[in-house]
Amino acid sequence: MKSKLLLLATAATVAFASCSQEKKTEVTETTTTPAGTTETTTTTTIDSASYRTSADQLANQVAADLRATDEATKARLQQIYYSRGRALRDIEARPDTTGRYAAVRDLNDMTTREVKTVVTDPTAYRTYTDNQGNYYAGPYTTTVVTTTSTSAARPSLGARVGQGSGVKKLEHENDGDHKVKYENGAKIKRESDGSVKIKRADGTKIKIDEDGHKTVKKGLF
Fold this sequence. Notes:
With about 220 residues, this protein is of the alpha+beta class. The chain has two domains: about 20-155, no CATH class; about 155-220, no CATH class. It has six helices and eight strands, in the order αββαααααββββββ. A six-stranded antiparallel β-sheet has the order 3-4-5-6-7-8. Helix 2 (about 50-65) crosses helix 3 (about 70-90). It starts with a helix and ends with a strand.
């Protein structure tokens, strides 16, 4: 009778785990030995649901910025960002921090290359690389987009504003706005309507509205 109950309990546990969509769960099993003592074993599975949710949100944001309505494109972006989140977790879990900077940079560069296989339009890809600092923190190598123009390729907006100082803080708000603050004091705020507000390290303020019109207010110093 005890064996049947144990089998039923095990089957119920397996069924619940298969429906949890990779959520973090703890399964505790208590076994009674012939001597009358008990042994308790707790097994913890990896919590991947949070990475999936984060990847979905980021893919939706990128699709909105690029005005991409293709569900297949969005699904491919979701998988790219999900893989990045899982890989980043493994990097951050390393006991030795030596080489972590380079590992994160290489992971971000690989993510950008994978996005390029999805976002094949050069103009849309340039928009993506310009916004890259708003999507996830660096480090990453400045992406140069090759176009038919003979003019020299410019670094991304984040690279120009941050001036190599690195990202200090990244904020995503519920209304779709997101902000980036850099170590040199500069800031970039992108609003859900497509407008951009920039504050450079020298105090200069730049506003670009949703139609692309730019206004500049010089700093006092």
